[in-house]
Amino acid sequence: MKRLALLCLGVAICAPGLAQAQRVSPMKAGNFARICARATGHSVCDAYLSGLADGVSLSKISARNEGDANAPAGFCVPVQETTDAMRAKVLTWLKAHTDALNKPVGESIFTALHDSYPCSAKQ
């Protein structure tokens, strides 16, 4: 149930129409990092990361399923990348950016993925 809730949250965070007021998770990135660092938290962490990545990928698709090829991508995770690798990169980024630990989890994790998976890099 927690996985589904986190997946839905990740998709909601990155859904189209963010110009309007949207609910943002009150969780801080530091709490998320602690969850991700524990083996018992890997499944919850990975579900959140997958949901966020899916949400960003799907945000380029309009309600009429037309998409917007000109919309900039927030980050570009290679198809073959594992969630273990994504989790490791996010945790490394958070350790290097301690100022992000008190920010909302969605903001910090999005930025971590943006910096770790630039779209300009060859896939």
Automatic annotation (TrEMBL):
The keyword Signal applies. Residues 34-119 form the Rap1a immunity protein domain. The keyword Signal applies. Gene3D superfamilies: 1.10.890.40. Keywords: Signal. Residues 1-21 form the signal peptide. It comes from the Bacteria. This is Rap1a immunity protein domain-containing protein. It comes from Acetobacter vaccinii. The lineage of its organism: Bacteria, Pseudomonadati, Pseudomonadota, Alphaproteobacteria, Acetobacterales.
